TrEMBL record:
SUPFAM superfamilies recorded: Homeodomain-like, Tetracyclin repressor-like, C-terminal domain
Protein name: Transcriptional regulator, TetR family
GO MF, any single term: transcription cis-regulatory region binding
Domain HTH tetR-type: 18-78
Amino acid sequence: MSEQPTSSTPTKASPNKRDTLRRIAEAARGEFVSKGLADARVEDIAQAAGVTKQLVYHYFRSKEELFACVLDQTSAEAMSELVSLELAGLPPREALRALLLQMVQPYHDGLLGSLAQEGVRFHESRATPRNSFMELAPRLRDKMKETIVRGIASGDFRADVDPDMALALAALATTGAWVNRYTVSTLCDVDVARAADADAWRSFSVEFVLSALEYERSSQHSLVRSAAPLSAPGSA
């Protein structure tokens, strides 16, 4: 007998319903990652989740609504990891590096990487309802601001920094090779589908953001892919 909610169903989802929704979301994520929004089929999602197509449409009015749910859940997982980072015990520079590395990690691991470009197109063409990412954003802004303020006080970071703009730029820089994969691949021959390139972009982008905030530029970490620094024109 298929699961059918009734008018007496309580507001809080029953364990069976929560499990069903979880299976649908997991199956949908797999389909969207492998096929994209346009080519993913609700029939295949239902089959992978072990439910009927009708039940999928009972919980989600459209494939697009299901995709929005998957995006929300996936980004919420990534944001939860970010805002839960314990940075207060780290020196400011290392605290910021830890935050930046965690920012890019879900893309590097594939959690968000395969959905990134689909998500950008989806949000650009639709009004985005309030979601977990938006709800957690203020906590992430506070964490970034606290880290920068500590760095300014310690002399590690320059004082003329807007924390919110620095956070937005850091997000764009670290995740850009996944979100704008074609552009990055064309301009610098870095394709994050290749593990070595993904590692190179993660390292470069994190150090690039840090170098923009440092009061005195550290030469400990290079901003070039090769071991030797670039030479100025005409130099030996």
